[in-house]
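Still learning. Show one?

>
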Amino acid sequence: MGIFGMDMESMTRLGSRITGLAEQFGTAKKKLDEIVQGLVTSDYTSDDAKALADAIKSYEPLLIAIQNKLNDYGNFATGSSNLTAATNEEIKSSIADNLRNS
């Protein structure tokens, strides 16, 4: 636990887990895109199914934004953890230096 009361390893693991989930989300979205595209281009798909596929495709910008936000949050958690850990080490080192020099 760092001097800021945070467990840096847990926060790093959380950040990595979130970015991993963002990647899984992107993979699932890609599969959905392929299925929807198949519905749109198939000669055997009913007009209702094609309309549903178009409706699903209309959500694509939102789904991309969600994936990006998840990834950003994971990177933020990991980066914050790394920065806080480095700051903890600098503070400890500075305190140790001041104690040695006093």
